[in-house]
TrEMBL record:
Record's protein name: protein-glutamate methylesterase
Pfam families listed in its UniProt record: CheB_methylest (PF01339)
Gene symbol of the encoding locus: cheB
Entry EC number(s): 3.1.1.61
Superkingdom assignment: Bacteria
Keywords for this protein: Chemotaxis, Hydrolase
Classification lineage: Bacteria, Bacillati, Actinomycetota, Actinomycetes, Pseudonocardiales
Amino acid sequence: MHRDLVVVGASAGGVEALQTLVSRLPAGLPAAVVVVLHMPAGGSSALPTILGRCGKLPVSSVVDGTPVEHGHVYVAPPNHHTVVQDGVLRLSRGPTENGHRPAVNVLFRSAALARGSEVIGVVLSGALDDGTAGMVSIKNRGGLALVQSPEDALYPGMPDSVLRHVDADHVVPASEMGGLVARCVGKGPDAQAGTPASELLRMEVEVSRDDAGAGSGDIPQHGTMTTLTCPDCAGSLVALPNESGQYRCLVGHGWTPDALLDAYNGGLERALWMALRTLEEKTSLARRMASSSRRSGRELVAVRYDDQEEEALAAAAVLRKFLLNPELREDAGA
């Protein structure tokens, strides 16, 4: 066996790092390279064209059933997970991971399950902790972990997170990553390096596939129910027993701790803006009711409406100051 499947994950700031990596891969690389860059769900991606202009390898967008061939770079398209399965690349509309589709973790886990120690995982620039759970799976199965130096990344969150959870084999700047990949491919992995695929890994890969939610019914059996809820569907989250602290809801949406916190922060901010809108509407209505009461000669009723208006105005002023002042929000942990 030889290491001949390279899976690459990137997010914020990742286009530049990907361009640098691909530009340094040699023609005829004896391995296939599969890339996931987190991107918006709508529209098309220009990434295959961008990367195709950078280096010597042909680059194409993944279509369902694409054979995994050496000397080629494959890019996951928007709004579809890319899954390694039976020697080909499959596309899936399975549950999002950390709010993303395609997701780095989905590609990495499926590669670890399908190819074990033949896989080389690469994590480049990105925010939060995307890619960590997938890299844990790659390492557990005997694959190699290559990480962009956090100080070299435009967004060091993803590299930092991987390094906190995984004993990386190499940590280098993007300018050295292509040459490093070329040196690592083709070498025979240590047959004793990996462990058999766990039932947890099999379940998570099945959940990400397109075959009618396969495996989602098994989620509670692999973890512990929590009082936390999924930001995507408001379903209960199950804490899974893996090194990176993954959570899944009962329909399969996956969340890592940092991404879950970030999603909760976003939900809190939306709720606060909604509360501010409600206070503004209350102010407007109280003012109208006070004016109407005075026209009808009901001064005592009008005064009560005046008090409600002042109360709503004061609360709205405090809330608006909090929402528009980043320093106050950071001090409050929002």
